[in-house]
Amino acid sequence: MFQNINFTTPSIIFGMDTLNQVGKQAKKLGASRVLLLTGPNVQKAGYVEKVAALLKAESIEVEVNIQGRNTPEPATHIPEAVAEVAKNMKADVIIGMGGGSVLDVAKMASALLTNPLKVRDYFGREKVPNRGIPTIMIPTTSGTGAEVTKHAIFLDEETQVKKAVASSALLPNVAIIDPLLTVSCPQVVTANAGIDALIHAVEPFVSKNANPVTDCIALKAISLMTKWLGPAFADGDDLDARYNMALGSVMAGLVLNNSGTSIVHALAYPIGGEYHVPHGPSLTCIILPCFDYIMLARQEKFALMAEAMGERIEGLTTREAAELSLIALEDLLKKLNLPTTLTHLNITDRSRVDQWAIDAHAEQRLLSRAVRKLSVDDIKIIYNNSF
Ligand SMILES: [Fe+2]
To answer: How many A from CA of 282 to the centre of ligand 1?
Structure first.
């Protein structure tokens, strides 16, 4: 089989204390007025003053915009409001510093400055025609991968469903990944974001869009994060764990950006939107039945995944090794206090399954990458196996 491979990435600056490079990087992008978008916890940790000082040292003016939210995903009006702020201050670079949602808002706000329509008009694949003003992304969790992806996820307030803008125009210019920024990340966020990152490596690896470049990166990311997510969860001050999780997370982000997610994210969107469940748990409560349903199409890949997760597969059949990957995944989820069923999230209303299945089936951008063709009835089976 001959594949066409198109691999894109922002410029990546990774390592301890790399936050110190933010001023120089902004200058290189031609910044004179920066809008710095962040959240209240990052502000409390003192990083806002640090970034502002580094920018001022390069004679760059900075305006800080603190994002507070009461839903797990930002609604579509939020990046529209931020774009208005950026326009009024004549920002020439936007910096997003925070978790995935803050980074998504920063990417979308930048694009709205050079594109005429509203966020809802850009949901879907490659709908944003023009690149926005330059952006620098600084994640403080490990991680959603948002710092290296062309995706931004928002809550569509009309339908209460999470939807994605997936456009190359949103790809950030620079990603600065400083593992020290993740040390202050609370335990529950470490688990939620960490498992999202692991799924960003695993899900594309067992999808139709997998290719040899992203497979290589995915296997290393899976091995790093399976080893280090537990220690980072157990002790947030463990710098080895934070460093390796940050590395695994950005690698998973590259896999996500270039091979894309599939069935698990598609089926999680209706749950996350309707019940306002954080993104990580919305994935873990359905991932085991999802993978069980598609495993027959990619047993060898699941066996490789088990090996990358540190499981012994010598002497096992491919099927036995493949099954081991799900056993290892379930064990990890339980040790991180993450839900492995809908019931764990107190979601018990089976009458909602029909509507979720219709909504998930509409996510053909993601489902077209699934290795098993999924009808609405197939999706109902998976949801029913998730209670
Ligand atoms: Fe995700």
So the answer is: 9
- Ligand 1 centroid – CA 40 distance (Å): 22
Neighbours of ion ligand 1 (CB under 5 A): 196
pLDDT at 69 over 80: no
The CATH number of 11-181, from 3.40.50.2300, 3.40.190.10, 3.40.50.1970, 3.30.200.20, is 3.40.50.1970
Calculate how far, in angstroms, residue 101's C-alpha sits from the geometric centre of ligand 1: 11
Residue ranges per structural domain of the chain: 11-181, 187-384
Distance 50 CA to ligand 1 centre (A): 29
Distance 52 CA to ligand 1 centre (A): 30
Low-confidence winner among 73-82, 165-174, 209-218 (lowest mean pLDDT)? 73-82
Tell me the per-residue pLDDT of 11-24, one tens digit each, with 9 for 90 and over. Answer: 999 999 999 999 99
Dist. CA 73 → ligand 1 center (Å): 12
The pTM score is 0.94
Taking domain 187-384, whether its CATH number is 1.20.1090.10 is answered by yes
Token pair belonging to 315: 């002497």
Helix (H, G, I), strand (E, B) or coil at 135: strand
Give the helix/strand (H/E) hosting 125.
strand 124-125
- Which pLDDT value is given to residue 70? 61
Distance 93 CA to ligand 1 centre (A): 26
**Angle at the Cα of 22 (from 146 to 15), degrees rounded to 5?**
65
In tens, the pLDDT along 219-270 reads 999 999 999 999 999 999 999 999 999 999 999 999 999 999 999 999 999 9
Cα–Cα distance, 287 to 342 (Å, whole number): 11
Q: How many CB atoms lie within 10 A of CB 279?
A: 24
| SS3 state at 241 | helix
Q: 56 C-alpha vs ligand 1 centroid, how far in Å?
A: 34
Centre of ligand 1 to C-alpha 60, Å, is 34
